[in-house]
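Re: that chain you flagged

S.,

Sorry for the slow reply, it's been a week of failed gels. I finally had a moment to sit down with the sequence you sent. For the record, here it is as I used it:
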Amino acid sequence: MKTLLIAGDRSGSGKTSITLAITAILSRRYTVQTFKVGMDYIDPSYLTGVSGRPCRNLDTFILTEEENRAIFYHGSAGADIAIVEGVRGLYEGAESTEDIGSTASVAKLLNLPVILVIDARSITRSAAAIISGFKAFDKDIRITGIILNNIRGEGHLKKITEAINYYCNIPVIGAVPRVEDLDLTMRHLGLVPYEEGIRDQPFLNKIESIVEMICENLDLDLLLSLADDRDNPGSYEIFERSDVYSGVKIAIARDEVFNFYYSDLFSLLKNRGSDLVFFSPVRDTLPDADGYILGGGYPEYHGKELAENSAMLEDLRRVSADNRPMLAECGGLMYLCREIRVEKAFSGLVKGSCFGMTGIIHADCTIPERRVVAYVTGTTTDQCPFSHASPLQIRGHAFHYSNIHPDKGVSYAYHLNRGYGIEASLDGIVTGKTIGSYTHIHPVASGDFLSAFMNECRE
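Prediction finished late last night. Pasting the structure tokens below so you have them in one place:
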């Protein structure tokens, strides 16, 4: 199996589009498994879409070394090539003086060769200085190739390539020209999710144009020659198959609205014997199940359709009142509130729009608010309906642009020691056996909590 990591010199360097294009082209010839450094759902949705295999997240802040290795090798089973996309700049992490949470830390942990994407806009010789600095900053990082982005013509390319060859002795794999109208479509929390975009043919046409334009400017044979070859060591205990939850049926909301999930969640649930059924809160009826999961997404853009499926709203109220376990995160939390209200026009949303939701959570949701993107760590509280003994660890992230206004006296399932909840350090409003939180819990890092949820579903 060939392995490589594609990193950027900064956020906005173009590594996401370049990784997407490389993955799409190589997937026509090989089985490609992708990974994304950091807690993110949207970039992985694109890599999943073009590779046909679920992209998985790696993160040295949320996950232990052993958990990262397990996810990497479990996800890579049967793949010819494993491609890891970095996050932000190569050395950006959770702290200013440590590399935990950074792309560099993942590269070192898995001993991956790094292909560095340089935003070459308006620089030539300075690119060599940037590369030299990146090489010298951490001697354990192996930068094996360079991709230049935002090149403005042959003269620009000649000067910058000469400088890199002279000072750095690292091969330039390709040079992507500056094309302003081929940027991926953005929204207030990042790219438009792939699951939503694929319903629009112009969206697919733009992706195809991006892929073809980038790859015709890259030497893919050179890229593959710079990748490492290694054997997959096999299975890890975390993903071992068992029948501990055999016969337990979990219904998961998954459509163009709710699609923010870690792929490891589905692997863990299936490998422990549970049956998964997916449904759309927009157009389906609610399937009968032992437990329910509603992930994140953009319900504010689909409020009318969600509100009009009154049968779904009523069925969710019924199963929650029946005390069937239900876990809703971020977009799912918003959907469980009484209403979503747009308080000012932004990002295509109309001021004054108000959509009635399920009302299971005793709170209202307003949007927009301060943008929150942060790591989250904490423990369950005495009010958590899934933990009946000692507090359980939760680790994940928060990622939203809304605010929740709960009624007085609501109970919370989580106490956070890092990150932001619904009310300061409190998150996860409890109604019976329903939890609605801003925290997106990582199922591997919060394995005991996931087991506690599944135990409730089995009861």
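What I noticed first: DSSP finds 14 helices and 26 strands in the chain.

Talk soon,
D.
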